[in-house]
Amino acid sequence: MTLTQTLLRSPLAAALTTPHGVDRYIELVAPMGVVDEVRAKIVSIHRETSAGAPVATLTLEPNRRWRGHQAGQYVQVGVEIDGRRRTRCFSVSSAESKPGDLITLTMRANPDGLVSRHLVEDARVGDVLFLSQAQGEFTIPNPLPASVLLISGGSGITPVMSILRTLLRRGYGGTIHFVHYAQSPDHQIYEAELRDLPPNVKVRLLYPECGDPAYTTEELRGLVPDHAELDTWACGPAGLIELVQETYADSDRLKVEYFKTSTKPASDVVAEGATSFAVSGKESANEGVPLLEQAEALGLSPEYGCRMGICMSCTSRKTEGTVRNVMTGAVSDEPDEDIQICVSAAVGDCTVQL
Ligand code: FES
């Protein structure tokens, strides 16, 4: 650590800059020079495909606070939009990194996603983003298994590509089965790279909307007959992942990552009553969907980031009522508790401070 950095991180510097902290002042003149937080500069932007919502890969140069990432992990990315910081989770798509390495994020401009649309459509080379350290358990073990199976759907390909690229960079000699589902060949990202892999990588790109078979256990057995004996990583929309989990119901060889939670109401929980959003004075009947969606359907705009119960951006105070965590099924009827509304559904009359 340089003398300047030591001084900037000293108790004296902290005292002089209270209550905002040293980084709030440094970032006004040199955003990449903040001493406690991770920032990353966009060094290139590659347009992947323009079929459907456009997709871009951003290559980022993190500052010295970045500790690197393991293949399969994600980061929270923050951007200032209309004077307010918005945060969203994105998987790192490049191979595992160490401090000082460049990393890539690939994202589709989700029509409802302020952050993804900003990054794909408005971000420019040289822009500096807020970044968290890497997070997540969707990672590969050490030592590696003899063969692996990777399954992804849509944008779920990004952490899987990080795993694939890491295995290839490490010179992995086992068989890598990779089954990916996309909307159509025109929507396929990384297409050229996927068509030019070494012989130990068996890639199957499938487009069910264009006539290819959709995912079923039988179809997977046809593609990868020994799938049940393989350590398997699957990432994609909730519908696909739930089917893959059924395939591996009796196995502990599956690791999964959703990029969007299931908003299906749980069949064993009856959603009754109504939720009052006390600050706005709005109310609607409960239908078993997360409170974030229920609020948005009423025209409210609560803050959110990952929409997966991870980043805490959507934390709101529930003053009364019972909620169910749609990811874990856990039910809570505590009054005056902070809940993540992206993964909490009301199961009776409920009041939330929104
Ligand atoms: S939006 Fe990230 S926890 Fe709810």
UniProtKB/TrEMBL annotation:
It comes from the Bacteria. Residues 35-141 form the FAD-binding FR-type domain. It holds the Pfam family Fer2. Transmembrane segments: none annotated. Its cofactor is FAD. Keywords: 2Fe-2S, FAD, Flavoprotein, Iron, Iron-sulfur, Metal-binding, Oxidoreductase. This is Ferredoxin-NADP reductase. It comes from Nocardioides marmoribigeumensis.
